């Protein structure tokens, strides 16, 4: 293990961050690691900030918080001190309320959501710069499929030098079935991300859409195809409600699991019927799903704004007052403020 570790230590930042999970004490480079901590940059992430479905077809449960907080989200997670969170929330409220009438309208929220979505986009662009440097150590602005494959396999515990040598000599790599399957899927995506003329070299921009399909129409389309392929049972390339709400086999074991499954089904049914199936004909086509998945779509942002308002609009005026946001802070920020908000109210 020791010699393996020595080799591993000589890899780029990217592998380093992956390996820090396996060898927490080794290869410490704190300043840069903190930015990469706990993420698998080599692989396209399952979860995409601000996008309505995960890559595996699950609903993004953190969407309201991502769209409401943008990059502030981490600050809310790191510091959940109620007094400070309340202050932050009040600050956000006054920014969303552009016309200063102490209410957030659907239009104001829509505009805010678009700004926060743009923040997530910029964040991905910045992170991608770092990831790209790691897979393109010679800095010529292009990364080949083989270079990527070597880095990927190294992150899976293969010896980078050996793998590189074998690939160079066209020798067979002994890869287990599971890893091979991941690799095949990645290669499909690699081809998709490679703009014509195809040379299997990705530029920084192409690498961004490889990792983040929401940044390119073509890749978004490809992601939708993958999701439909996974959920479509009769092979007609469209989704019915039963197809969309089918549960993975063997998930229900006890009452608690049953309740979770019930929630899961209920939420998906609602999303299918009320949002994704735009023309309400009971079928979700690829086009409908792609529209729905597009984070830059203003119509989606308005829908989302209305949904967010509906959740917390206790006085039913179709707008959000500060009190309503504070009361539903868990929905908007992920941290509870309700008791605190009430206490403060009573104090004054
Ligand atoms: Ca307002
Ligand atoms: Ca179908
Ligand atoms: Ca439809
Ligand atoms: Ca209201």
TrEMBL record:
Domain EF-hand: 84-119, 123-158, 274-299
SUPFAM superfamilies: EF-hand
InterPro entries per UniProt: CAB45_EFh, EF-hand-dom_pair, EF_Hand_1_Ca_BS, EF_hand_dom
Position of the signal peptide: 1-28
Main location, first listed in the record: Golgi
Subcellular location: Golgi apparatus lumen
Coiled coil: none
GO molecular function, one term: calcium ion binding
Top-rank taxon, per record: Eukaryota
Alphabetical UniProt keywords: Calcium, Glycoprotein, Golgi apparatus, Metal-binding, Repeat, Signal
Protein name as it appears in the record: 45 kDa calcium-binding protein
């Amino acid at each position: 293990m020791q010699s393996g570790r020595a080799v591993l230590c000589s890899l780029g930042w990217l592998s380093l961050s992956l390996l820090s999970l396996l060898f927490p004490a080794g290869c410490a480079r704190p300043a840069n690691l903190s930015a990469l901590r706990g993420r698998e940059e080599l692989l396209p992430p399952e979860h995409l900030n601000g996008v309505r479905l995960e890559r595996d077809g699950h609903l993004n449960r953190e969407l309201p918080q991502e769209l409401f907080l943008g990059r502030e989200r981490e600050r809310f997670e790191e510091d959940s001190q109620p007094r400070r969170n309340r202050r932050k929330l009040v600050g956000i409220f006054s920014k969303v309320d552009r016309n200063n009438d102490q209410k957030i309208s659907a239009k104001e929220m829509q505009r805010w959501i678009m700004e926060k979505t743009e923040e997530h986009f910029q964040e991905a662009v910045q992170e991608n710069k770092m990831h790209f440097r790691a897979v393109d150590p010679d800095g010529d602005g292009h990364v080949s499929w083989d270079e990527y494959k070597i880095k990927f396999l190294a992150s899976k515990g293969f010896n980078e030098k050996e793998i590189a040598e074998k690939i160079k000599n066209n020798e067979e790599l002994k890869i287990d079935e599971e890893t091979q399957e991941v690799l095949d899927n990645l290669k499909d995506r690699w081809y998709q991300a490679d703009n014509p003329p195809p040379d299997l070299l990705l530029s920084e921009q192409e690498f961004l859409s490889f990792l983040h399909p929401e940044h390119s129409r073509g890749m978004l389309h490809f992601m939708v195809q993958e999701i439909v392929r996974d959920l479509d049972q009769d092979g007609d390339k469209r989704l019915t409600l039963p197809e969309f709400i089918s549960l993975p086999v063997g998930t229900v074991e006890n009452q608690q699991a049953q309740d979770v499954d019930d929630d899961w089904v209920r939420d998906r049914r609602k999303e299918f019927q009320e949002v994704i199936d735009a023309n309400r004909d009971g079928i979700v086509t690829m086009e409908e799903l792609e529209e729905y998945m597009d984070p830059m779509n203003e119509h989606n942002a308005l829908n989302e704004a209305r949904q967010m308002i509906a959740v917390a609009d206790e006085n039913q005026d179709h707008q959000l007052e500060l009190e309503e946001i504070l009361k539903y802070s868990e929905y908007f920020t992920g941290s509870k403020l309700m008791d605190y908000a009430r206490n403060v109210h009573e104090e004054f």
